[in-house]
Specification:
By secondary structure, the protein is mainly alpha-helical. The chain is built from 16 helices and no strands. The protein has helices at about 5-35, 40-70, 75-85, 90-100, 100-115, 120-130, 140-160, 165-185, 190-195, 200-205, 210-225, 230, 235-265, 280-295, 305, 320-335. Helix 1 (about 5-35) runs antiparallel to helix 2.
Length: about 350
């Protein structure tokens, strides 16, 4: 990443993490406050968490809009008049909170310095807000569109941080975003299942007869080292069928993700040299697909993918350490050569 674009790039990434974590944070806090496993009204719990999430999302939406409004010379005088005449303590508190948020301040500097497109940021926030109420997408196209609206828009903005603004580069970024969006859905399957959500869209789930019971059965067996299937399902054959159905669905989504990433790899030559570092996230996606296919045989709940063994190199197993070293090698090679 060019030195002139690094601060803006990291500010953009920090902003993306902030709004992406709103949904998960509300679900986790809701579960802690009510107690997992208690007999509670789930609709009321969902409403409470959704309200808090929407308020946080609205705060970011208003803050970003305020930045662009302040950049419009025709609005400067009007904004000054409105701010000076406002006597609402709540409104004044919200406005003041924006000045003390480090992520927002860094993002504002990036917007002003690099002229980041408001439309990309708005699409990103709108997609995240719609996703607050989504438990399972209808079709695989919806999952791909979510990847386009989130990951691809972050890549468009990253390219703008590096001074790259052309349709050909955006097309490559679009393919990477869709591919990474599908991969994110696969990687989050285990976590989403614990939250009562299904990462597989309804059309694929129906096609392969995947239910939440199937997900729980296979996940439990995986976490127990393959010894828990009979404990949750008296018929071992049914458990094996559920695992095979899950594998088939994983293959279908993984192949679609691979198609988009491979197409982006073939067209990456059109991206100017200064914009190539923005495409490095594709390396992580390609490595994950390689591990999923070659080492895990499309077992999305393979223990090496969902187990984990702590933080830091001292707690990593040999397999995990090898994967991390290989990823660092691939990232370094892509950074040096400018191609992934």
């Amino acid at each position: 990443m060019p030195a002139s674009a690094r601060e803006a790039y990291f500010a953009l990434r920090a902003f993306n993490v902030e709004i992406a974590s709103i949904k998960d944070a509300s679900r986790l806090m809701g579960g802690r406050s009510r107690g997992i496993g208690q007999n509670t009204n789930t609709s009321e719990a969902g409403t409470d968490s959704s309200l808090g999430s929407r308020l946080r999302m609205q705060w970011w939406r208003d803050a970003i809009t305020g930045i662009y409004d302040s950049m419009d010379s025709s609005q400067i005088g009007l904004q000054h008049q409105q701010s000076s005449s406002s006597s609402d303590p709540l409104l004044n508190s919200l406005v003041a909170s924006r000045k003390h948020n480090p992520t927002l301040r860094s993002l504002e500097q990036a917007i002003r310095t690099h002229g980041l497109t408001h439309t990309f940021l708005r699409r990103l926030m709108e997609a995240r807000e719609v996703d607050l109420d989504v438990m399972q997408y209808e079709t695989v196209r919806d999952v791909a569109q979510y990847g386009e609206d989130t990951v691809s828009n972050v890549l468009y903005l990253s390219l703008e941080c590096a001074g790259v603004r052309d349709d050909a580069s955006d097309t490559v970024a679009s393919d990477i975003g869709v591919g990474l969006g599908l991969i994110t859905a696969l990687r989050s399957t285990a976590f989403r299942a614990t939250q009562g959500e299904c990462s597989f869209p309804i059309d694929i789930a129906t096609k392969h007869s995947i239910t939440m019971d199937n997900l729980y059965t296979v996940l439990t067996a995986s976490l127990n080292g393959g010894n828990g299937a009979n404990a949750t399902n008296n018929n071992a054959q049914d458990a094996n069928e559920a695992k095979e159905a899950l594998r088939n669905a994983t293959v279908e989504m993984a192949k679609m993700a691979s198609f988009h990433l491979q197409r982006a790899r073939g067209n990456q030559g059109v991206v100017p040299k200064e914009g190539r570092p923005c495409l490095l996230p594709a390396v992580c996606g390609l490595q994950y697909l390689s591990i999923l296919q070659e080492e895990c045989e499309y077992d999305i709940f393979h223990p090496s993918l969902v187990g984990g063994s702590g933080d830091g190199s001292e707690g990593l197993s040999g397999v995990e350490r090898r994967r991390k070293l290989k990823l660092m090698f691939y990232l370094g090679r892509a950074w040096l050569t400018g191609t992934f």
